Amino acid sequence: MQKPTFQETLDQIVMRDKRYDKEAYGFLREALEFTQKRRRKSRATAGTHVSAEELLDGFREFSLQQFGPMGITVLEHWGVRSTGDVGGMVFNLIEAGVFGRSDEDRIEDFEDKFNFEEAFAAPFRMTKKYAATKGSRKKKLTSQAG
Predict the structure, then answer these.
(1) Counting beta carbons within 10 angstroms of the beta carbon of residue 39, is it exposed (0 to 12), middle (13 to 18) or buried (19 or more)?
(2) Which residue has the higher pLDDT, 106 or 136?
(3) Number of H helices, E strands in the chain
(4) What is the C-alpha to C-alpha distance for residues 40 and 58, in angstroms, rounded to an integer?
(5) Among 131, 31, 103, 109, which residue's Cα sits nearest to residue 74?
(6) What percent of the chain has pLDDT over 70?
(7) How many CB atoms lie within 10 A of CB 75?
(8) What is the pTM of this model?
(9) What is the pLDDT of residue 85?
(10) How far is Cα 69 from Cα 121, in angstroms, rounded to an integer?
């Protein structure tokens, strides 16, 4: 019997668990690959297993790179609103045989690791200091032109 493709596996997962969009799983897979590549470059740790903390950090960084300030909007559209949701997807993929796991891996390892609003929206907010500076420059330009 032929092994199902990744897309076929995702179809089965999404039929079983409708919380997350199919696109979110594809993105999670890419975020894992991003995390593994970053890990190999840094050679910080031996082994191939990626911890929940490492995956969440890679997921956050990859999302910021791919989506910029729209990251939180895209993730929410896919049903991913917390680090616990990332864990839910990871364990759906483990159950389907797409991701592997160690004996120490637990879904609780993904719970409440960071706030999505702070992680995905805050880096793009204008600071009060910058907003004040920008506002004063605009006033100076206007007064010089007038």
Answers:
(1) middle
(2) 106
(3) 7, 0
(4) 13
(5) 31
(6) 83
(7) 24
(8) 0.82
(9) 98
(10) 6
